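Board notes (copied after class):
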Amino acid sequence: MSVSPKNLINKNKNLNKRLDINKINLDNVSIDDLSYNGKNYGKYINLMSLLENVSACQVSDAYNAVSRRSGTIQSIKPINNQKVFGPIFTAETASDDWGTSALAIDEANPGDILFFKVDSEDMAIWGELASTCARDNGIKATVIYGSARDLDALLHMNYPIFASNFCPNAGSALGLGSLNESIEIEGQTINPGDFFIGDESGIVVIPKELFAKTMAATLEVKVKESKIIKEIENGRTLGEIVGLK
């Protein structure tokens, strides 16, 4: 394989570079810029600089400012309290079918967040083996509207898990579910490619068409809150800052 000047330039890009919050520029970013493709270095670095320094709470506040919606699904909680963000790969199946989980791992792209809608919480469709395989395939996290299991392993694994419940029992490798189609959970439609962020506080889903606006609003929230923290450190109370006194 020949090495071109372009290859050398891309290889030498510092993908770990991060910008101060006041220097972030989100002009013309899209959800595709969550991955470095060799041409979007500036957009990628600016997005990473923002998203690695904001919380699900701040993104939810920003999305509410954009759409008057929170983006949260209250019943889905963090299992091992790890932060993650990325584009969603959806799957829907029955609780007795963990085989669809295996198929989703094979079909999803590196950097994706697997998001499962399960018809009940009676059986777990995800556990230690699936997490290990998904992590090694470059998938960033798994979200389950349903049950996970193997918490003895998942709690200590470097792979984020979010679920609405957990239990010890599982079904069979049936593989009868659907992959990468729209799903609806508690009145919220989630489409393949939508944006996900989750952390210790919970999860937020942002429609991909509102990603850029929400990121711009998230930057505003972060800058505003940073200024408020500095004012508190300088002796002002929160009541004074927000005009209650």
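Comment from the instructor: Helices lie at 5-11, 41-51, 56-67, 99-107, 128-136, 151-154, 211-233, 238-241. Confidence is low (pLDDT under 50) at residues 1-9.
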